Amino acid sequence: MDLHSRPACSVLGAVALAGALALPAAANADATRCRERVALESARFAQTVMKALSGCEEFVIKGKSAGPCPDETATARIAKAESQLRVRIDKTCGGTDRTCGGFEDTPLALYGWDVGACPDIEGAGCANAVDDCVDVAECLRCVGDVATNQLVGLYADDFEPSLDDATLNSCQVRISKETLRLFRSRSKLLQKCWRGVSRERFPGPCPDPGDGKVLVKVAAAEAKMVSNICKVCGGGDRECGTPDDLGVAAIGFAAACPDVTTPEGQACGGPITTLDDVVDCIACVAEFKGDCLDALAVPWATSYPTQCSP
Fold first, then answer.
1. Among 175, 234, 237, 262, which is most buried by a count of CB atoms within 10 Å?
2. pLDDT band at residue 28, thresholds of 50, 70 and 90?
3. Does residue 25 belong to any structural domain of this protein?
4. Structural domain total, the chain
């Protein structure tokens, strides 16, 4: 017997065993990176689309553009955001060739996307089959696009630029800015929260209990939105709910809040007759859209709320 054969076999066996043990760990690491990337890019896409649409509508409100929105600039920004959504998911979830749609893709089940089909939002038609990470990106794109367009439409569909009334025009612009600010703040906070859950820093779910801070920060973002709108639209006392508030009809806000219910059970629907109704509606609908998008992006952690696609 070759005296060197036993050590050589032992070494080879050890290498093989190490490789076998490393495979599950590597697969888990890939899945973690993939699921975090999906959540991050979903949030980024929605935030970018919201910003592009809001910016376009703000130009219309200020009389700097005749519309309609999205205009050429907003359309280009949205197209770039869509491309980045797909490319970044490709690179993280598409295996060693960094391209979704091949046999090397991270398996959908490992990051919770073995859902069969996109769950849609409010019957908008975002129901494509989900067979690979190409389809995951398409689902995120469709739902993100619908949700942000609907939220911007909450005020933009009825606003008429009031260029002959600086106070009224400033109020309309402020409503646009604060709707955008609130949506983006909620989106960033929730995405960061789920990343912490993914990395086992705290158990979740998000936002409640989250890391114990998310709900407080979300409440602060909503309070800031209310305060900033009331300072501009609330008349001389800069407060909502007093007789000198600008009228809803003059502002041009929707006459009724959309009849949706947040995953937490808050009903948004109802007539809008006061400035308080306006800020309440914005907060409620922003929560609804944001929470639906948030849950969509993390199927490994939470089920998609039935309120989002009844």
1. 175
2. confident
3. no
4. 1
Q: What mean pLDDT value characterizes the chain?
A: 91
Q: Considering the domain boundaries, does residue 38 fall inside one?
A: yes
CA–CA gap between residue 136 and residue 128 (Å, rounded) = 9
**Distance (Å, whole) CA 181 – CA 259:** 23
Give percent of the chain above pLDDT 70.
Answer: 91
Average pLDDT (200-225) is 94
Instruction: Examine the pLDDT at 252 and tell me if it is beyond 70.
Output: yes
Question: How many C-beta neighbours within 10 Å does residue 219 have?
Answer: 11
- Has residue 4 been placed in a domain? no
Q: Give the range of the structural domain holding residue 282, as residue numbers without chain letter.
A: 34-302
Average pLDDT over residues 98-109: 94
2 falls within a domain: no
Q: What is the mean pLDDT of residues 118-132?
A: 97
